[in-house]
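Lab notebook, bench 4. The sequencing result for the construct came back, and we need a structural model before the next group meeting so we can plan mutations. Quick request posted to the team channel:

Model the 3D structure of this chain.
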Amino acid sequence: GAHQPVVSKEEFDRVQELINGRSWSRPHRNRFAYAGLITCGECRATITAEQKTNRYGYHYVYYRCSHRKAGPVCRQRAIEEADLERQLHSFFGTITMPQEHLGWVQAILKDIDEESSLESTRRLGRLKRSLELRKKELSTLLTMRLRGLIDDEQYQERESFLQSDRIDIERRIAQSAQNTKDASNAVLQVFETAVSVSTLFKKSDIDGRRSLIASVCSDLFLRDKILSICAQKPFGMIQNFLCPSKPENVMFGPQLEGEHQRKISGANDDFSDWRGLVSRVRTFFIEHPDSFWLK
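Done. Here's the predicted structure in token form:
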């Protein structure tokens, strides 16, 4: 199955720093931006990096298979860092949406939140009524025990069930409004990232680039000097929307780059289509409250 990279809180905070323009570069020495993030497409070993100096004194970095997997000898050749970065930049371009559409996203989110507010109020009312019912049942149960209408075993069994149910209802009440608010905030963060991700990648330092890759990319494979990448959800939804000819969950490669560039200039300028995309991303966050964008 698809590998989903674990995104740490530190990496998430780093992405937010980049989006907000608070930090662009930090000094590094003898570090390689993409080492350990990519898998060899032939033998499935990790891609490592080395720095070399040619006879003219020029320093360059190249990436190659680490050859740490047992089996036939891997024959994959090395690739220069500049070529690798060009392909990464092309991938980020496939999820970069036009700046002017961010206003649409904000308006759509406001509209969806208002529409869901009534249903949320109704759902909250049902939960509160259920909570009051459980409290009354607990009070009635205690009265029955004090009057000797039920024994200790019967009381404890029923009381344990009602208390557990009460706690669960209280938890759902506390989370009801917050989940919707958190999901909408996460949607806005994701689309803000999608607007600026190409620029962020070009301007970021090593930590920033690694954080962007961990936050946005999945399943990075290098074979025959071609880098294949899947976009993590919900960025895969945005990529599929901006490049409709690419089936969702299919890896990005050079063959898709030209198609994307033809589509992006006027991609999906229908407001209703954008509403559908925003709604799908919002639903994703509501159904996946453990997403790091919600932390």
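The radius of gyration is 26 Å.
Will bring this to the meeting.
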